[in-house]
Design a protein that fits this description.
With 266 residues, the chain is an all-alpha fold. Helix content is 70%, strand content 0%. It is built from 13 helices and no strands.
Amino acid sequence: KYKYLIYLFVFLTMSYFSFEDKREAILLFLTFLILEYQVISKRLRFRDYFMVFSISILSFFLILIMSIKRGYGDFVKIDDSENIFELITYVPDYISSDFFLASVSNNLEISYSYVHSNRALDYAIKENIFLGGSTIFKPLFLLIPRSIFKYKPQSMIDLYTKTFSKQQRSSGVSWPVNIAVEFFWNFSYLGLILILPFLIFFNTIFSYFFESPEKKLAYGLVLPLFLLNQWIVLVRGSGLEQFLLDFLIGLIFFFPLFKIIRKKSA
């Protein structure tokens, strides 16, 4: 029971201080959920389903609070100092407002991801786009500066955003499209087939960690939980090079933790 109190404390703390990035709340919730599912039991009971449902409702409620804090509905200004309990009082008005459905679609990035992915797919079909795998192989050139190798491949985010607005891209705006559309831009209709071994490869890696009992040790789940979160970001449209970079940065924190816990377990 103390563990769940810690979960709740961490979740509320991050929701308050990271209100500008609701993805962190969603990924944190998934981390807790997967950790509980993996460590405790693979056979979910009714109580477990009820717990998941309750946590899901709480997570959605907190996302609404975080969105209000970000300025959705103009209930508060972003620079205001309302605490979380004051923000809760605005939730009923937010839910009952005429713009709630449109806003909650933006809250969960449904409309954002849907619009850009579909527009990118429609453009690729009409213009017969065929990148030949350049954005997929871009991670191979991750450490090579573009100033040295001017033919360094561009990322999918960069290509798509520049296609529709060079001005927005030059100002730092990025419009991601999902991984399926990226494969289509690279290989056209063949990409619908080539994406399968790509998904199978990552599924094999995650299964190795999560299906092996010996990997259930505390340090054994840190890296796969981190990568699983990054995988969700990748599928949404971050790009393989960002996934690889996050993996390398994650290793910097993972190996010292691995050494410390392994030394204490010896």
